[in-house]
Amino acid sequence: xxxxxxxxxxxxxxxxxxxxxxxxxxxxxxxxNPSEIDFSQDRRDWLTLAPTEQDILLRLTSMFQAGxxxxxxxxxxxxxxxxxxxxxxxxxxxxxxxxxxxxxTDFFRRFLDEVVQHSGDLSxxxxxxxxxxxxxxxxxxxxxxVTDRSPAAQTRASVTYNMIVEGVLAETGxxxxxxxxxxxxxxxxxxxxxxxxxQDESRHIAYGVYLISRLLAQDAGLWAxxxxxxxxxxxxxxxxxxxxxxxxxxxxxxLTLDMFTDFALGQFQKRMERIERARGATLDQxxxxxxxxxxxxxx
Length: 299
Ligand code: MN3
Ligand code: FE
Description:
The protein is mostly helical. 74% of the residues lie in helices and 0% in strands. It contains eleven helices and no strands.
């Protein structure tokens, strides 16, 4: 493969494109350092917790931790496809995306090492639904891009990664965790880190909505891929949430199943409607619609 021309020395960067707006935001909000989070109060809080309270926190953290590792490991094939298509503005944003996932992986491992002080195997917390999604469906959809760069494969990859894994599970888990511990004033280091991490995730998901919309604007027939992937994976994602609550009666900290599923389905519905509007839209309309949403988001 050779370069026919360079974007920056022919027409220049398109700073109006949503990924460039997200790149600007990432340079401002995505530069926090997990190593600087102070976990000393979290450690003191941890030692006062009841065994079931520790159990649910360890369970959630084991899912957050492996999930962040999975998204760090599995993003690269998408970055490669975008680079090969010469979409410089998108690739520039994706460099921040991958770096942020690595930092999230780093962050949760610090919590396990310094707050929980746990060095053993946590994979017992990964239920069959979790395994099907994070050990199997996510790497399969992403690594398929190594040999299949088609718009259909890209759509399936982004729906799996951005809409299901990030949009339903990560965002919901972090939202509930943040809300509960921010209210009760416990685990301040974890709350601070998850607050920052939530902002990073909202940029990642915004990129996914843009990517899927861009693909749909070019070929409305890809809607079938969106629906098939959703129908296949949404039950697994909701299953992961259900599995968690099935272990407690009642769940500690006032956490409830509805708190998770209502938020997950609400966000999911909102984004599905957004993506659906790209069917039959022009690329300019997709750019304008995504841009409006990005400007509304605080980070
Ligand atoms: Mn992440
Ligand atoms: Fe992410």
